[in-house]
Amino acid sequence: MEVIRLSVRNLIEFVMRSGDIDTSYISQNRAILGIKAHQKLQKEYIGDYTSEYILRNESIIDDMLFVVEGRADGLIKEGDHIIIDEIKSTTRKLENLEDDNLLHWAQVKSYAYFYAHNENLEKIDAQLSYYNIEDGQTKRFRKSFTKNELKDFYEDLLYSYLDFSKKLIEWRNERNQSIMRLDFPFSNYRKGQREMAVAVYNSILKSETLFVEAPTGIGKTMSSLYPSIKAIGENLIDKIFYLTARSTTKAACSGAVDMLITNGLNIKSVTFTAKEKSCINEEVKCNPKDCKYAKGHFDRVNDAILDILDNEMLIDFECIEKYSLKHRICPFEFQLDLGIYSDIVICDYNYAFDPRVYLRRFFDNPSDDFLFLVDEAHNLIDRGRNMFSQELRAVDLINILEQFTGKYLNIRKAASNLLSKMELYRPLMGDRGEYLLIEAPEEIYAGIKSLTSKLDRYLSDEKEAKGYEIVLNTYFELLSYMRIADLYDLGFRTIFTLDDSDQIVIKLLCIDTSSLFKEALERARSCIYFSATLTPMDFYMRLLGGDENSFRYHLNSPFDEDNLFIAAIANISTRYNDRKASVSHINNAIREFISQRKGNYLVFFPSYAYMEMVYKEFSNDNPYLDIIAQDRGMSEKQRDEFLAEFNYDEGKIGFVVLGGVFSEGIDLVGDRLIGSIVVSVGLPGLSFERNTIRDYFNQNMGKGFEYSYMYPGMNKILQAAGRVIRTEKDRGAVLLIDDRFTEKQYRKLMPKHWKNIVNYYDIDILKERLNEFWRDDRDKIF
């Protein structure tokens, strides 16, 4: 018998939704305030109340088995009487609220039927509890139903979903048959590629977390995708989330899927694009008044879903935009719906990990088994800290004060009160303008809660007011602060600093991300972290939620080590206090290094200021060289134009910043790049925040400098150096400039294929060795 698995939410939304998109403040606010409303009512209920009650039903309709799951907010027992409770938060005055929300009733009636059916009850009550987040009042609607009444209602929902279900089964059968026939898309596995694919498959089979360090050239994308798709065909998993931070990596994954489709795979893959980039309206305003695609979106979106799934397999933004225009719907919301029915979702890390925006439609009440494939996983620690941290800026509150007079004096008062509470910390910040707290300041949280409750009415009633967007954006920041404050644990610190205008900034800083990533990993059956640079592995495993049950896998480089010349200049210090004195020595090293072979080179610096200092002198001393430098705040178009300068044998010298857009995620194969020069050991800049991270890990692990400075810095070095050799035919040279590269603690972090690295104290000897390396290319000298 064919089986359809889905959540109560997805069933009801597909069958019953209609009308407009209106992402007003309340719908975005509901994630936080709704949770608090649930918790409040669940705790306050007098009697036998079980919260978050999981329910499941299996029903056969037209020879198909529907397995539908969900989580009711509450199960109430009053003697022998059973009530299923659903809680909804609102800002509407409860005296004006009627029991006419069909979607809300459909949800609670479905849960009531599940319970009545499972417990063989002939009668049961369904209750909707509405909680006003402004005044704390509650209004409840309760109805009694027989089991047969609820059965008829629920089966009507399934019949309405039936035709689409048959389509899903048809697509699924075609997919599974194609997966069975699918061979690896290349005639031979690269060195290490089969081993990685086997490790990925075994981790899925055992529901484990795997960390893989696979150097460039292994073919990480295909090595992770191919066994994962095979696992879908064997019903081990239902959906793959391919998670990455860069558009280039998303494109690489999409290209790999396209190759498999060309080889006979029948699969649905969708790539998510950020709202700002995917919007086809004149500006991002998601309401029916300002956007014609938002108006009536839900009346038309199901037809669009059927249309695109009937005709497309590889669904990227261009494809989504095409069908969005055809059906006059919002492309951002459209792509999220398509994720439900796709086998592969290619998207940013935040869709799976960010506690403020992760995809609750998938992960809060999952009916499927998911796989996380986390590409470029070395980026996720810093990204995680950003996702799990939040700032409160006094300047934003001052901007709010400027918006309100007259009838909203209560908002001014609440904002002023919050500012006053922040100012109480100024004397503690001293001359350095810094202060550290172990705990989150409770009085700040209380002040934010008071202010947001007063902003609710304004945001509901004054959408045309001048300065509305300023207030709305600040409101969202306040809500984010509250959300992160609710996650605050021993791995957090609160830091107080001053901005450029001498106003206080409070930051809830997540230092130890391990527990929050561990919690996020519960959303998937298995997670595969992979990158070319996960050294030292213990560092990444600890902070990304790994434990004693996680597995690690190191692969060697598939390339001939003799194709890479790597050297370190051992007598130049690039420490901050030595930088001015180092400029002429660095310029000399760069000039001599590139003089042995004409071609394209990248020179990496730890900061813009250092880069600009060296660039100014180097370009003045070498006017015959074609030198370009990365600008601060480059647009995506400007970045593409910068890379386009690196044609074959052009002799282009690019000055860029370590850890930026040109130090990873780019492929300049062959002679498009023949060398990299890396200046410094890449340590993050000294700061109060970095030192707070250092002190935390010193106290807890005795590795404060390593965790806060050395390991993140060395990863930047490895990524920058890894730009040179991209294929088995590439030859290239890497020069590391900093005396610390000779130290044992840094040598231990270097990959095995750097075993030929040599320290040089004499630039002339370095030139001789480099001359020998480029001997077959002597016709290409400047």
Topology, element by element:
Layout: E1 2-7, H1 8-16, H2 25-44, E2 48-61, E3 64-78, E4 81-90, H3 102-119, E5 123-132, E6 138-146, H4 147-181, H5 193-205, E7 209-213, H6 220-233, E8 239-243, H7 247-262, E9 269-271, H8 275-278, H9 297-311, E10 314-315, H10 317-327, H11 331-341, E11 344-347, H12 350-353, H13 360-363, E12 370-374, H14 380-387, E13 390-393, H15 394-401, H16 409-423, H17 426-429, E14 435-437, H18 442-461, H19 468-485, E15 492-498, E16 504-510, H20 514-521, E17 526-531, H21 537-543, E18 551-554, E19 564-569, H22 579-594, E20 601-605, H23 608-621, E21 626-629, H24 636-644, E22 652-657, E23 675-679, H25 688-701, H26 704-721, E24 732-737, H27 744-747, E25 758-760, H28 763-773
Parallel strand pairs: 1-3, 4-5, 7-17, 7-18, 8-11, 8-12, 9-10, 9-11, 12-17, 19-24, 19-25, 20-22, 20-23, 21-22, 23-24
Antiparallel strand pairs: 2-3, 3-4, 5-6, 13-16, 14-15, 15-16
Helix pairs in contact: 1-3, 1-4, 2-19, 3-4, 4-6, 5-6, 6-7, 9-10, 9-11, 15-16, 16-18, 18-19, 22-23, 25-26
